[in-house]
Amino acid sequence: MLTYPGVITVSETALEFLATLLADDRARQRTWRKLSARDQALLVLAHLRNGDTYEQLAAGFQVSVGTAHNYVREAVDLLVRRGRSLLAAVWTFAWTWSNFLILDGTVVRTNRIRAHNKLYYSGKHKHHGVNLQGLMDPYGRMIWISDGLPGSTHDLTAARTHNILQVINRAETIYLYADKGYVGGESDRLLVPRKKPANSELPDDTKESNRVLAATRAPGERGFAVLKNWRVFSRFRGCPRRVGTFTQAVFVLEQEGI
């Protein structure tokens, strides 16, 4: 087995943040690990940012594959506990001067799941994956990300499942901009483009309204683009039910550690 040095394109702040989180948890539980908290944090960042496999991590850090897996799981779960609920994120945003959020969805690609092949297959994206919903502020900065649902789930169904529309309805000063995948949502505060009628054209004023909506939504693409810089999501090879947990952990790192 050959090993080689590598580079992880995250800041020292992220490493120190995660190492402190791990060290505090060890002190609280009075537990011991083979690797120091800093080395464990480095191992976890190598997995999340570079997409290094557990086998590669085990060889590089001289631990077993099972230990590498446990180290990653432990750190991810600690990070997720620091995340905010949908309600907390929306109400925190409501105190800002902005009055709208951008709702968007994506599908994180996964390996083919034999037992649930059709359930996780996204017909829109033509691959197996997990559906995630995110809320971005007007500048495209993500303020909340959902847990994962099977890739076959429609975006509007996912928004309903996560109670996004209900929460926005309760925040009476906030509007929600979304694409055509959310047409039909039960909310007066949901703003979506008008679809072209069959065998006819949209009026010019409606076309202009759609263009304005598209321009307003455009920064929302940045939120998921930032998360997908973490190569573990290039093709997630773990249990698909853990995709949402991993994205929430990375979101916390982006918010607090970088």
Distinctive features:
258 residues, alpha/beta, Arc Repressor Mutant, subunit A, 2 domains, seven-stranded mixed sheet, 10 helices, 45% helix, 13% strand
Biggest β-sheet description: 7 strands, mixed
Residue share in β-strands: 5-15%
Which spans have pLDDT < 50 for at least 5 consecutive residues? none
Average pLDDT metric: 91
Number of helices: 10
Q: SS-based structural class?
A: alpha/beta
CA radius of gyration is 20 Å
Regarding quaternary structure, what we see is single chain
Structurally, the number of domains stands at 2
**Helix percentage:** 40-55%
Instruction: Tell me the overall shape.
Output: globular
Count of DSSP strands: 7
Order of helices and strands: HHHHHEEEEEHHEEHHH
Distance between the termini: 33 Å
What do you see in this structure?
With 258 residues, the protein is an alpha/beta fold. The chain folds into two domains: 12-81, Arc Repressor Mutant, subunit A; 86-238, no CATH class. Helices cover 45% and strands 13% of the residues. It has helices at 12-29, 37-50, 54-61, 65-81, 86-94, 155-161, 164-170, 204-217, 221-227, 243-257, and strands at 100-109, 121-122, 127-136, 142-145, 149-150, 175-177, 190-191. Strands 1, 2, 3, 4, 5, 6 and 7 form a seven-stranded mixed sheet that branches. Helix 1 (12-29) crosses helix 10 (243-257) and helix 4 (65-81) crosses helix 10. The longest helix has 18 residues, at 12-29. It is globular and about 65 Å long. The two termini are 33 Å apart.
